């Protein structure tokens, strides 16, 4: 040691600094490479195990679902005891059950939900909900919602979680598992929803929620415009013709997105008299709404009515509306052959 | 002799289940993961009695595949198994002459009945 | 007396180079840390839901995919087929034949049964004339449209694509790149899940050389045998996983790769579309869009998705690589020059105070400074002023740091997406990282220098380009029937 000390002592200080950094970086490189190799070997092994577990759970599920001679109760206990010991095995099993559940319905879907419970996977999921990190919680809530596990009280704790992903999953959970009134949380909503959230809500309602279709007109006096847009859209998507009249006032709403959505819904619900209301407004409307008006004329009106909009276009007009108009006109023109 | 069914589907889970279920029902099952392989199989194997296909497929789409089958093997029954439940997609499919349309998620028992009905009516 | 002052000068210059090196290192370390946080956050919040299930939603916005093609006869049919199978509920594919000299257009017409499409399109962005627009008579290809136009370069072709496209979101891609099947779903998400107006989103570009590709899908990711391609893989990891991830987190992203990016069409048009006068049209467009938003005082965002979404072939030999890097350098320099008003301008926030200075000093100036460093070293050598132990020490620090940065990028990839799955690939990549600073970097340095030299020579271009600022096309009525 003293030998090295002696050499270094004679060095000017910049050289010492250089040597220090070179050695530091060298060690850091070595450490990074080692962890790189370790991570690779670890992940590869994990992948191999996963594939193996995947095969096991897959065979088990297919037998359970489609083989009438399969003693489900007995085999379930056996599988649980021998193949569902480590957390990784359980995670793979949950994932597989989710995939099956996503693709199958009817009796098979019921069997899957029972298996989720009988294999003790619900317990595992709930423990990761209460003890896990935020992303484990989000995942757990997602799993519970997809498999319709009723744990409303436990999940309620996360409706105001500080992580947005957890909070969103908790909301979706409520929609998916509700017996009725899936949109009850709208009452407490303070922040506008993003387009993404609207799509998710629609998806949850249409494909997972199993209760009676809610009355969307309940939310037509909500203070958030995105909730209005959503409700107006759902009234149309779920064919709630009885609320059609209630959409008419929204043609005068101050937010253009609400006005446009109202026209769109009324058009798709074939509301009589829509043209009489919207056509005169064409000149003064915003571009987004103009687009919907042109579409409405194209679906419910005739070429003459469409051409009636033309004077409004000849004034300095955005090219987008012009283009929209010309495209509609072209589509409505009878082709030469016919 | 067992009747042979061609399944065109790229989701391994769905393939495995269909294979399992339809084999239990007493059919011979052949699988193609994409449209191009399906066309090759149809060209080689003349004993196929029914085609079950997804619409969203790699390389050759389901629609193209259906058009092709209708043009070349007009009397081959086709069942579509698709995640899409848009009206437009379903009517398009029927216009092209598919025999049945099943949406995912599907009930395996229902599917098995529909397969039986379609095969027997040919 | 004279030697003293010379010593003095060399010392000052040495210090300047050292200081520059230290700043560069600090910047790299900072971006590594920030990127790590961003990748971890992305992984954690996107680990639970298979986006495929969203396919059922009819509320997703429609997208127009724009794919310019020039002399692509050999692969065009395969490439378009692969695009047609992309997983998205509502999209159209617009292939723009940019006046190819080969049979690209005939191949397309034959294979996809094309007939003339007489629907109306906009003529809002100026471009070379369109010869004809086609659509298919087959139901299976009803989402395909092909535009045949006169040659005008990639930017011009994309502008035509924007004119012809029907939907409000456009996705510009290279026709020969391979998309992951859920690429569009992932790239559209930033547009939807944001309270601000999103003007663009981009993703990581992956290298497809040597990968097994069947029917336009990546079947197996393989590590190329060629050193030159492996070195580019490491370079891309550094640029995307460490560079752009970090920029995205601080909202300072200036570049969305031309190979795969999604844009809000209206903003693109309002900004004036792609600039046909620069070779760096992808970077220039985003910068101009950001300036526009800033001028209009609209709160906006640019999205970035770290998932591997798009695979593309990179230059497999030194000649093509040289040409590519030469072009990139010119593109960067041109863009910086056109938007020089932003550099170090506090009015532009992060863009003015961080992004543009970074591009100026680290991306554009770095090779020049490095070159000057070498010249200076040679000068010292001639003057007999070189202290070899110092040189050795300094080179070692530089080398170990370069390697450290590369292996950190490798580690990020391993931690996040791990596309190269075999263990032996790890060893090979590490070896490449060790060799890259010695055998690859000097070549890149030289290409960049050459780019600058070419730029100086073609002075003519500069004059015309410096005048191209923000276009004003927004409110003209120009529609073609």
Total count of helical runs of at least 4 residues of chain A: 18
Mean pLDDT over the full residue set of chain A: 87
The end-to-end distance of chain B, rounded to whole angstroms, is: 16 Å
CATH topology of chain B: Rossmann fold
Mean pLDDT of chain B: 88
Count of DSSP-assigned helices of chain B: 5
**Major beta sheet, strand line-up of chain B:** 2-1-3-4-5
Shape call of chain B: globular
Number of strands of chain B: 5
Second-tier CATH architecture of chain B: 3-Layer(aba) Sandwich
Portion in strands of chain A: under 5%
Rounded to an integer, what's the Rg of chain B over CA atoms?
13 Å
Number of domains of chain B: 1
Structure classification of chain A: mainly alpha
Report how far the terminal alpha carbons of chain A are from each other.
100 Å
CATH class of chain B: Alpha Beta
Architecture overview:
The complex is a heterotrimer of chains A (338), B (122) and C (481). Chain A is mainly α and 338 residues long. Chain A is built from 18 helices and no strands. Chain A is extended, with a radius of gyration of 31 Å. The model of chain A has no long low-confidence stretch (mean pLDDT 87). With 122 residues, chain B is α/β, with parallel strands linked by helices. Chain B has one domain: Rossmann fold (3-Layer(aba) Sandwich), CATH 3.40.50.2300. Chain B is built from five helices and five strands, in the order E-H-E-H-E-H-E-H-E-H. Chain C is 53% helix and 16% strand. By secondary structure, chain C is an alpha/beta fold. In chain C, the strands form three sheets. A ten-stranded mixed beta sheet of chain C has the order 3-5-6-2-1-7-12-9-13-8, sandwiched between helices. In chain C, strand 5 (130-136) and strand 6 form a beta hairpin. The chains are: A mainly alpha (338), B alpha/beta (122), C alpha/beta (481). The interface between A and C is large, with 53 and 53 residues.
């Amino acid at each position: 040691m003293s030998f090295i000390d002696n050499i270094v002592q004679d060095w000017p200080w910049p050289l010492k600094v250089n040597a220090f950094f070179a050695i530091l970086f060298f060690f850091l490189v070595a450490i990074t490479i080692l962890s790189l190799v370790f991570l690779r070997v670890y992940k590869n092994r994990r992948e191999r195990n996963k594939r193996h577990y995947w095969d096991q759970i897959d065979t088990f599920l297919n037998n359970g679902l489609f083989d009438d001679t399969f003693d489900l109760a007995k085999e379930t206990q056996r599988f649980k005891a021998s193949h569902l010991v480590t957390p990784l095995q359980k995670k793979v099993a949950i994932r597989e059950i989710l995939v099956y559940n996503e693709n199958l319905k009817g009796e098979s879907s019921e069997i899957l939900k029972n298996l989720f419970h009988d294999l003790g996977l619900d317990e595992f999921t709930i423990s990761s909900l209460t003890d896990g990190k935020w992303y484990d919680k989000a995942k757990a809530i997602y799993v519970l919602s997809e498999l319709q596990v009723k744990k409303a009280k436990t999940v309620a704790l996360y409706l105001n979680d500080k992580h947005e992903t957890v909070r969103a999953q908790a909301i979706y959970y409520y929609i998916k598992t509700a017996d009725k009134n899936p949109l009850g949380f709208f009452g407490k909503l303070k922040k506008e929803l993003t387009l993404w959230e609207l799509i998710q809500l629609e998806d949850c309602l249409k494909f997972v929620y199993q209760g009676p279709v809610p009355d969307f007109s309940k939310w037509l006096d909500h203070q958030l415009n995105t909730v209005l847009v959503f409700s107006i859209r759902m009234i149309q998507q779920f064919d709630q013709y009885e609320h059609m009249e209630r959409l008419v006032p929204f043609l005068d709403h101050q937010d253009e997105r609400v006005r446009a959505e109202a026209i769109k819904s009324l058009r798709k619900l074939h509301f009589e008299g829509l043209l009489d209301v919207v056509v005169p407004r064409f000149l003064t409307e915003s571009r987004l709404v103009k687009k919907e008006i042109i579409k409405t004329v194209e679906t419910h009106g005739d070429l003459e009515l469409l051409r009636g909009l033309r004077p409004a276009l000849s004034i300095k007009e955005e090219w987008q509306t012009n283009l929209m108009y010309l495209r509609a006109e072209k589509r409505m023109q009878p082709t030469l052959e016919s | 002799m067992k009747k042979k069914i061609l399944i065109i589907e790229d989701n391994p889970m769905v393939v495995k289940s269909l294979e399992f279920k339809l084999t239990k029902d007493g059919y011979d099952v052949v699988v193609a993961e994409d449209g191009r392989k399906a066309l090759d199989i149809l060209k080689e194997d003349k004993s196929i009695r029914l085609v079950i296909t997804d619409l969203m497929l790699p390389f050759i789409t389901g629609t193209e595949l259906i058009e092709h089958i209708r043009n070349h093997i007009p009397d081959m029954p086709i069942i579509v198994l698709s995640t899409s439940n848009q009206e437009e997609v379903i009517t398009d499919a029927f216009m092209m002459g598919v025999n049945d349309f099943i949406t995912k998620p599907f009930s395996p028992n229902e599917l098995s009945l529909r397969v039986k009905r379609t095969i027997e009516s040919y | 007396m004279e030697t003293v002052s010379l010593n003095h000068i060399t010392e000052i210059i040495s210090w300047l180079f050292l200081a520059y090196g230290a700043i560069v290192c600090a910047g790299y370390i900072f971006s590594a840390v920030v990127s790590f946080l961003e990748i971890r956050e992305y992984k954690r919040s996107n680990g639970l839901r298979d986006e495929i299930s969203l396919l059922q939603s009819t509320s997703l916005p429609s997208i127009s995919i724009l794919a310019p093609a020039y002399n692509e006869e050999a692969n065009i049919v395969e490439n378009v087929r692969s695009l047609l199978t992309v997983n998205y509920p509502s999209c159209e594919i617009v292939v723009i034949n940019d006046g190819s000299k080969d049979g690209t257009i005939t191949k397309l017409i034959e294979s996809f049964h094309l007939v003339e499409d007489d629907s109306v399109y906009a003529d809002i962005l100026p471009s070379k004339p369109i010869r004809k627009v086609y659509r298919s008579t087959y139901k299976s290809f009803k989402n395909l449209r092909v535009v045949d136009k006169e040659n005008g370069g990639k930017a011009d072709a994309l502008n035509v694509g924007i004119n012809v496209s029907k939907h409000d979101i456009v996705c510009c891609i290279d026709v020969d790149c391979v998309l992951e099947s859920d690429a569009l779903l992932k790239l559209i998400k930033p547009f939807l899940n944001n309270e601000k107006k999103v003007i663009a989103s981009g993703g990581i570009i992956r290298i497809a050389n040597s990968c097994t590709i069947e029917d336009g899908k990546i079947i197996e990711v393989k590590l190329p045998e060629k050193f030159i391609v492996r070195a580019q893989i490491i370079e891309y990891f550094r640029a995307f996983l460490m560079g752009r991830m970090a920029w995205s987190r601080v909202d300072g992203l200036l570049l969305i790769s031309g190979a795969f990016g999604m844009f809000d069409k209206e903003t693109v048009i309002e900004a004036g579309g792609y600039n046909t006068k620069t070779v760096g049209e992808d970077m220039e467009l985003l910068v101009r869009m950001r300036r526009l938003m800033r001028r209009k005082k609209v709160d906006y965002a640019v999205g970035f998705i770290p998932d591997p979404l798009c695979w593309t072939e990179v230059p497999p030999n030194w000649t093509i690589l040289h040409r590519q890097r030469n072009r990139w350098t010119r593109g960067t320099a041109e863009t910086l020059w056109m938007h020089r008003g932003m550099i170090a301008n506090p009015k532009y926030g992060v863009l003015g105070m961080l992004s543009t200075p970074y591009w100026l000093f680290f991306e554009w100036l770095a090779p020049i400074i490095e070159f000057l460093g070498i010249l200076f070293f040679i000068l010292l050598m001639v003057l007999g002023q070189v202290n070899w132990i110092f040189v050795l020490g300094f080179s070692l620090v530089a080398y170990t740091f370069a390697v450290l940065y590369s292996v950190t990028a490798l580690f990020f990839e391993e931690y996040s997406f791990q596309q190269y799955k075999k263990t032996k690939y790890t060893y090979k990549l590490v070896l490449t990282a060790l060799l890259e600073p010695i055998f690859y970097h000097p070549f890149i340095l030289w290409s960049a220098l050459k780019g600058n030299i070419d730029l100086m020579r073609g002075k003519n271009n500069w004059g015309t380009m410096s005048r191209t600022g923000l276009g004003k096309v927004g409110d003209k009525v120009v529609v073609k029937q």
